Amino acid sequence: MKQAYFVYPGLGKTTLAKKNAKIADIESKVFKDKNLAEYIGRQGVPNYRGEQVVNINPEWPSNLYQFMQSKLENGKILVAVPKQDGYDAFDNLNIVDYAFVLPTKERLNQLRKDYINRGDAKEYINNNLTVRYNEVLNYAKSTGKEIIFVEPGQYLEDVIKD
Fold first, then answer.
1. pLDDT of amino acid 133
2. What is the mean pLDDT of each run of 10 residues along the chain (162 residues)?
3. d(C-alpha 64, C-alpha 51), whole Å
4. Rounded alpha-carbon distances, angstroms, from residue 47 to 44, 108, 115, 139
5. SS3 of 87, please?
6. Ranges of H-type helices in the chain
């Protein structure tokens, strides 16, 4: 078991964290935007995916690093969506034992339906399934870190075990 995983959106990191007390779900936007509650709480908006950070928290990014460090010190396994601030945080904390969890191309097609069902913005969906997927895959390959592929019908809890 690794200390941390970059998990592609929609593969169950939040669900697994709710089921398993050893897993810490890291959502950097919660730490970056000091007005996050404003757009999470808007009526008719089921989630904040696809929303832009509107007001940078002056404690950013040290608040994220402190939170992650406290979770590691308590034996938690970090799971985060792969993006630049996550890469920076892992580097800042010197987390060398991490892996990427990415969907296969077939599983990526299933994610389109999942994203639509959970109410994600169209722009977010289209970007995730094309540009972002290729960027993350190329970045993961360039690091030399382990890449765990999730097949159709699988989720994060199916591919990482205690």
1. 93
2. 92 92 87 68 50 76 91 93 88 90 95 88 87 93 95 94 68
3. 19
4. 9, 20, 11, 27
5. helix
6. 13-19, 28-32, 36-40, 62-73, 84-92, 105-117, 122-127, 133-143, 156-159
